[in-house]
Amino acid sequence: MRLYIDPGTGSMLFTVLLGAMSAIVFFARSLILKLKVGRGGKVDKNKTPLVIYSDSKRYWTTFRPVLDELEKRGQEALFLTSSPDDPALETEYSHIKTEFIGEGNKGFARLNMINASLVFCTTPGLDVLQWKRSRFADYYVHIMHAPRDAASYRMFELDFFDAILFSGQIQVDQIRELEELRGLPAKELEIVGIPYMDDMLKRLQGAPAQAKRDETTVLLAPSWGKSSLLVRYGEKIIASLLETGYHVIIRPHPQSFTADKDVIDKLMAKYPDSGMLEWNKDADNFEVLRRSDIMISDFSGVMLDFAFIFDKPVIYADIEFDKGQYDYYFLKDEPWSIRMLPKIGMGLTMENSGNVKELIEESLNNPRFSETRARAREEIWQHRGEGAARTADYLIRKLNEITETAT
Fold first, then answer.
1. For the whole model, what pTM was predicted?
2. Domain architecture of the chain: domains with CATH
3. What stretch of H or E contains 31?
């Protein structure tokens, strides 16, 4: 007789096993660290106090406000990047050194042997795939770079950090739930805010007034991949938008031009730039967000930037989301982002996509969306305007604690 275990039960058993193994690893690592730097231990003079790692130049908006704050305070740091054209490499700092360490496995080979007191990053997956904890590094800190669920990462990608910096209590609660489920030691979790959103809000507040426009501008800003809006809705949504008489801007995700190239090429050929339609590829999305009145998107993070920073309405594609690969799968409650979307915007479906003008007008004119946007913003974006300062506060404080322990 064969024993059958359904996929859900199998996943749970695997999680329990991984949780037990993780607890042993955490305990062993802590014991080794105590033996290494206990009474009579010596500080490693070759150890870099603070290493900051970015796997892509697109996270520069998150790191730059923090680096500026560290520079202002005279904190020495080493910024490592896997992007050869990362803006950090062209930025001049007195206290922060920058270095390109290579892409892919070459970069991870350097990270896996890094000699540092504290490693700070936006990159998930520590000790899950090719990025391993260096035996010469003491403490790993992850910061979330967007206002979303902590469980939106792929399974186990946040499990092995020592600390995580968040923007809202809902994220803290999700990590605590996952830790309890998996038998993991409690990480240090701190709410600091969102540095890049603070920066963009400050930029918006200081921007010159826009020229008055009579036309309504609709921004179509999807993510990429087989579930993205342009791949699923394609010609139908663009044709419907052009029928509204509104000015339409289409801004595909940069990855679309690689991952969805055939789809994008076909759409751009059939619907070229005109007086009513423009395809936007600006490296900086600030101005296109500022001059748009409403956004239509799917699961792209830029939708929340538009709603929370620019305080403008959104329409979200009601696309079925497969939670099977993500930590969402293990939560007892529906993810915050899924519960929140219907409160801040209207849903676009295959059935109602032909009536997109009515959806746009309702979204622009119904005051309830403005009220619920404000409530959602308060939940996920705490300490507005303080993200960079609070992040720097935490890093310096933790670095001092590690240094004191090692002396």
1. 0.83
2. 40-194+385-405 (3.40.50.11720), 201-380 (3.40.50.2000)
3. helix 7-37
